Amino acid sequence: MINVKNLSFSYRNGHGTPLRNITFSLYDGDFLLILGESGSGKTTLIRALTGLIPHFYKGKFEGEVIIDGLNTKKVSPFELASKIGVVFQNPENQIITMTVYDELAFSLESRGMPENVIKKKINNITKELGIEYLLERRTTQLSGGELHLVVLASILLLDVQTIILDEPLANLDPWNAIKILSLISKLNKNGKTIILVEHRIDTVLEYTSVNKIAVLHEGKLVGFGSLDILYNENITKYIGVPTVVYIAKKLNLQKKVFRSYELQKVLQLY
What we know:
- Strand 9 (212-217) and strand 10 form a beta hairpin.
- The protein is α/β, with parallel strands linked by helices.
- The N and C termini lie far apart (42 Å).
- It has 11 helices and 10 strands.
- It has helices at 42-49, 52-55, 77-80, 100-109, 115-129, 144-156, 174-189, 201-207, 233-239, 243-250, 260-268; strands at residues 2-11, 19-26, 31-35, 59-67, 70-71, 84-87, 162-166, 193-197, 212-217, 220-225.
- The protein has a 6-stranded mixed β-sheet with strand order 6-7-8-3-9-10, sandwiched between helices. A 4-stranded antiparallel β-sheet has the order 2-1-4-5.
């Protein structure tokens, strides 16, 4: 589904973290958690996956990014939007209309869909996400969590296979954070490919079905693979050790566990 091969990029103006020879692949239904300290290149990688690099952000681009058979260098971000969508850390910057309904209808109208089809799609998606009560609200009146859900709904309306979320928990309280994570985990279990950039490793592991980890450091991919890499000290020195992993290592458990309920099951055997 997604193939990144020997990707390197440096911004023309010198701003932003460059990427250095990054290679990895994802398949339909994968749930990738991207980790790394601030300035490690996470945002630059997201821009490359969505085609904003090299079409909007200019610089030296090497290698290739293939999204469902489309080379991001050869097709526009608009064309890629039918394959991959992104909810940025500040979703209010992605809102362009005054009401929630108009915001959700906009992308479908731009694709020439008839009004009755648009209404049906919006009703179905908002009901699935539990935000039908927001349809008549003004976008300027939405909370941070509601903005994330509205942008996510607009992406799902295009029936994209891959959804990227850039630090969606940054400004959310614990309840809304769990709600967002549970929702995207459900989408993943229904077949969507999820790419999540987030610092709250423990919370993400506990409430999602994440199955792959990518760790960036100074623009390099220093770790990529299954959750097992969280037991690798050469990797965790860049991101810290998740709490459950720390406890399991201290107890010298033979089985690798990543979530509290997995830890409880193992401890019951002792």
